[in-house]
Amino acid sequence: MAATPLRVQVGGGTGGGDGGPTKGVASHPQPLRPPGLGVSSDSYPFRSISFPSRFPDDFSQRYSDDCKPGLLTIARASMTSLISVEKIEIDVTLSPRVNSVKPSKTVAITDQATALVQAGVPVIRLAAGEPDFDTPAEIAEAGVKAIREGFTRYTPNAGTLELRTAICHKLKEENGVSYTPDQVLVSNGAKQSIIQAVLAVCSPGDEVIIPAPYWVSYPEMARLADATPVILPTLISENFLLDPKLLESTLTEKSRLLILCSPSNPTGSVYPRKLLEEIAEIVAKHPRLLVLSDEIYEHIIYAPATHTSFSSLPGMWERTLTVNGFSKAFAMTGWRLGYLAGPKHFVAACGKIQSQTTSGASSISQKAAVAALGLGYAGGEAVSMMVKAFKERRDYLVQGFRELEGVKISEPQGAFYLFLDFSSYYGLEAEGFGIIDGSESLCRYLLDKAQVALVPGEAFGDDGCIRISYAESLDTLKEAMERIRNAIVSLKRCRCRGIVLIKVGFYQ
Prior knowledge:
The chain has 508 residues and is of the alpha/beta class. It has 15 helices and 20 strands. It has helices at residues 59-63, 76-79, 96-99, 107-118, 137-148, 161-175, 190-201, 217-224, 244-250, 273-283, 344-355, 363-373, 380-402, 439-449, 474-489; strands spanning 6-10, 38-40, 47-51, 124-125, 184-187, 207-212, 228-233, 255-261, 290-294, 320-325, 338-341, 417-421, 428-430, 434-435, 452-453, 455-456, 465-469, 492-493, 500-501, 506-507. It has a 7-stranded mixed sheet, with helices on both faces. A 3-stranded antiparallel sheet has the order 1-3-2, with no helix packed on it. The protein has a 3-stranded antiparallel sheet with strand order 12-17-16, covered by helices on one side. It is globular.
């Protein structure tokens, strides 16, 4: 029978000085190491000794001379009997809060695309939400300079005064809103700014109003705060913009936060000022209602569309938590830097959360961000060149998909996404694949057939659509367009009549 290790804790104390060890206490640092025994002396004065659970019959005689008085007392009976070790079941349950959060529906198709690329399959990946440009040289050099000059230590939790002052200047000059540095919190990306804002203002049972299509993380952030996401659908015929009447009919005393994203991820829609003013009038009627304005794509906008900050509207400064950052416009996704601006009371609450989680953002990134804000109005020439390239890519794809039968388009006015309605193809059968019954299966089919990775609209709250990122070179997009076109026209109509397409709400 195999012996089971047993650990016995022995002794305590540091000895009795020059006169030798205190009676009944092991002398340190001399460990007892009888043959076959292992003694751990990592922590003193307590030690653990490991030995087989079945001892030889002459154990007492063989080791009695080595054992100091009081070091180890074990009854003879226990030496000769097997000691059973009870197996302890570890509790692996998770927090109900975490269990309420849904995993990203884009993970499966992204993982599949990555695996194909690693296997040598030439997949074109149009799923990522990041610019394909390098960070402008002036910004990168500021980061390098910060490293060389030793600016590599902790910064204040809220961010350096230099950067927060620069952000205040930007908000005043470009957005027409005034803030002081203590009303700005710099974080490790705009995503952190958003979740901290949601956690800071929402209580269990509160409602977070989210127009759909939405960025995938908004509803899950609400759930993490024990709040309830309330999804308001929009129409492609209305450019995916929120209907003020629908908003007004939805609001209750539980409504705490309205999230607006303009320009929008995933649709590229831009809220015109007049529509925002209508929304602001409704918000003003509800004392508990705040607005989180996600303006991360602010500078990636195509004329004649213009950007309006919600906090600049009459009476909305006190109601608005403005989120922005450097990832999109300045091609700084890996630098991880965003910020929140708002009334000091709310910003301080967000800062409290940050102080107990991540603390301040990277010192190096903050120096780079100061350089980014110093490039000029709206990012200067460096950003305008990127926006020009995005617009050229957008125009090419819009024209190409308009020529594809059955595809509905809302031409994006900002960001770098197309959110296309492919629902007319649902119910068709792909040879060797099966029925296309929604956005997820369509994206899996296009990945399999066309070797193009896209994101299903289901992840954004609209299963009729798919999202295409055009943050890739024009040549790459031309190749992707050709592959998608060939895959779509090869679909043949399913002869299985009577299939119920629950996800898009109609019968075939």
